[in-house]
Amino acid sequence: MDIFGIKALLICALIFIPFENLFAERPQKVFRKGLIVDLIYMLFNGFFIKMAMAMMAAGVLGFAAILVPQSITQAVSGQRVWLQVAEIILITDIGVYWAHRAFHKIPALWKFHAVHHGIEELDWLGAFHNHPVDIIVTKAISLTPVYFLGFSDASIAVFSMIYFGHTMLVHSNVRIPFGALKWLIASPQFHRWHHANQREAYDKNFAGQLPFLDVMFGTYNATGDKVPEKYGVDDPIPSTYIGQTGYPFLPRRKLSNRQAPRTEA
After folding, report:
1. By the 8 A CB rule, do 232 and 114 touch?
2. Which of 15, 38, 159, 172 minimizes the number of CB atoms within 10 Å of its CB?
3. SS3 category, 222
4. What is the pLDDT of residues 30-40, one digit of tens each?
5. Cβ contacts of residue 160 below 8 Å, gap of 6+?
6. Structural domain boundaries of the chain?
7. Backbone angles phi and psi of 121, in degrees to 5
8. What is the end-to-end Cα distance of the chain in Å, rounded?
């Protein structure tokens, strides 16, 4: 992690740690279980993701120059930045929704995504707790259309900052009423119920930023003010970073609670 990244981390810690103490959803220590592993994820994943995204962007831009008419890319990049950002949020979250849903539904992919769901004490640092394959595939699917269409560097930069901050917010241990905005903007309550290790929460709330996508596709879990009883999974997820990184490549030893066959009531 570079100096900019360390400064960004410190700023985020100064914002979220007091915030989580003042508006905590559930009692939880700052130095909670899995904290060190999450910090390692944050340090190492950033390097892998930057490399993968740089290679992907170079490849996509090369194909886009051949396949997409310049009139389209100029029209897209010529829009006002705020409009481009809104469009990027919609385009990327549609990609995130379907990629996320696939990681839940396909057993081979679930083993990568189970690492993220293995978090048992959820807070803002949980946003970084993703297997590199999981996050790289999801970003590739969600960002490829953005590069193809020629959105401006400025709009992508603004979107990245919004996405970065919002991802930490939805994983944070805070209780904030969103009111009617809960249908438009993903809240911690919305995403908390995606992480709940309870039957009614399985395969629900896949959207990263726009909950109305789950409403449209029938996967929205309306929980009101209820608080999940527990987070995590029943999969045998190792407790170390190395163990978790290698976990998806090991022979399957147990049928996941989220992958178990559904029975009709």
Report:
1. no
2. 15
3. coil
4. 888 889 999 89
5. none
6. 3-249
7. -125, 105
8. 50
